[in-house]
Write a structure and sequence with these properties.
452 residues; alpha/beta; five-stranded parallel beta sheet; 15 helices; 33% helix
Length: 452
């Protein structure tokens, strides 16, 4: 059995899409595994194909005040399985991330100076599947014979497709921590008991964000899983149980990235940040207030409206929250609505009142509204947008992506305008797969143009 620590290459693949922007999107799962591997003594390298700050780029990536920014864009042909159903001339498909030659240079340097024993590739959006396949093909060409293992969201939700088309030697669905030790031992001979991962999230090291070329923002995950089971969401499938970190452990992570790397922007990746807030989020916010640093916090995954008491709003404002997104979905608050009722009209109005009383302004508060659902009446969307504006906050259209293993998947397959099971890319919300008529598409264009 091998006792020398292995060298493991972690890869964040290119994005293939019709449009992409870095809305605080980092591969926190892969970087968490990387930190656990480093803690075990392994040498870890990182190839980030979506890096905005690669030193080989002609200019430093643009950084907005909140850390976000655009990816480098390279037009590419549509994948064959997509082009068969979508006229290519109607869409500009692109690779988002570093140029191919930069990725090749980095991989060739590894091949010459520190060939890895194992390559771990992550995957995020299911409809970025072709970017995963292109990345794996490049990695295998540069590092022939090194086993490639694919994990992540696409690997978990579209396992059969990934096994057939990704090019990986193995596809691993589900959370990676549970199988990390045995996986590394199987491919490298390094003893699995040297990579033991505790079920206690407080015992996990901080994600290895420092492997990036630059840390423009630090995503924070205070919990894993979600207690809700929304029809359109796969969170409960990907993380079947709810686990939390202690407030002090999260606080120490935030201070780590701020004090050592001068990070000031922190998006929360939680699906349920304010649930049971008195024992979870409130103590964290109180620590942040006492620390007195000028930091910016963001909630791109949305907050549950029912949980926004005045105490919650006041603590968020004083702690430095700058971007508030609410999981509204629709303002059809009746019991007869097509999908689950997570919030009632009076709860929505009360949350808005509390946020404004705490000091948040219109441009800081947005409410996500679902658009493009199967059999959706778009006039309900228009009505919801108007009502949200009337309450002095921003309507933020969230265009529907059909996701396997969700309650709505079968309905989406039956109602889609093309066969969305033929390729994960066909579920891309840019294609509005469940919007069937030209008249409806025209109405959506009107709604998009009237968002502000």
């Amino acid at each position: 059995m091998k006792t020398d620590p292995p060298h493991i290459l972690c890869v964040n693949p290119w994005i293939h899409d019709f449009a992409a922007f870095d809305f605080w999107a980092r591969p926190i799962g892969l970087l968490s595994l990387a930190s656990q591997l480093r803690q075990s003594g392994a040498k870890v390298s990182f190839l980030d194909c979506t890096s905005r700050f690669h030193p080989g780029l002609p200019a430093l990536g643009k950084i907005l005040w909140d850390g976000r920014g655009p990816f480098l864009k390279t037009p590419i042909p549509l994948p064959e399985q997509m082009a068969a159903q979508i006229p290519e001339e109607t869409r500009t498909f692109s690779r988002y991330g570093i140029p191919q030659e930069l990725a090749e240079t980095d991989l060739n340097a590894l091949a010459q100076t520190g060939r890895p024993d194992l390559i771990l590739v992550t995957s995020l959006m299911t409809y970025w599947a072709s970017g995963v396949a292109e990345t794996i093909a490049l990695v295998k060409k540069a590092l022939p014979g090194v086993p490639v293992v694919l994990g992540g969201i696409y690997a978990s939700l579209c396992t059969d497709h990934a096994e057939k088309y990704s090019g990986a030697d193995e596809v691993v669905p589900g959370p990676g921590e549970e199988i990390l030790g045995p996986l590394v031992e199987r491919y490298t001979g390094f003893p699995s008991d040297r990579i033991s991962v505790s079920d206690n999230l407080d015992e996990h090291p901080f994600a290895a964000l420092d492997l990036q070329h630059r840390i423009a923002y630090a995503p924070i995950l205070t919990s894993r899983g979600c207690p809700f089971h929304c029809d359109y969401c796969a969170s409960s499938f990907l993380e079947p149980r709810m686990r939390r970190r202690s407030p002090i452990h999260v606080f120490r992570e935030i201070m780590h990235w701020h004090e050592r790397y001068n990070v000031i922007n922190f998006p929360f990746y939680d699906d349920a940040l304010l649930v049971a807030a008195k024992d979870h989020a409130f103590p964290l916010m109180e620590m942040l207030i006492r620390a007195g640093h000028d930091l910016n916090f963001h909630t791109p995954n949305a907050l549950h409206i029912r949980e926004i008491s005045f105490e919650a709003a006041d603590l968020m404002f004083r702690a430095g929250f700058k971007t508030i997104r609410l999981g509204l979905e629709t303002t059809n608050f009746g019991e007869a609505r097509a999908h689950d009722v997570k919030v009632r009209k009076e709860e929505f109005e009360r949350a808005i009142r509390h946020l404004k009383q705490a000091g948040f302004t219109t441009d800081q508060i947005g409410a996500y509204l679902l658009c493009g659902l199967p059999d959706q009446d778009l006039e309900d969307v228009a009505h919801s947008m108007a009502l949200v504006r009337n309450h002095g906050i921003l309507p933020v259209l969230a265009f529907y992506t059909p996701i396997p293993h969700t309650p709505m998947w079968k309905q989406a397959v039956a109602g889609a305008k093309f066969d969305i099971t033929a390729h994960p890319g066909l579920t891309n919300n840019s294609l509005f797969p469940c919007v069937r008529s030209g008249r409806e598409m025209d109405r959506i264009s009107q709604l998009k143009n009237s968002r502000n």
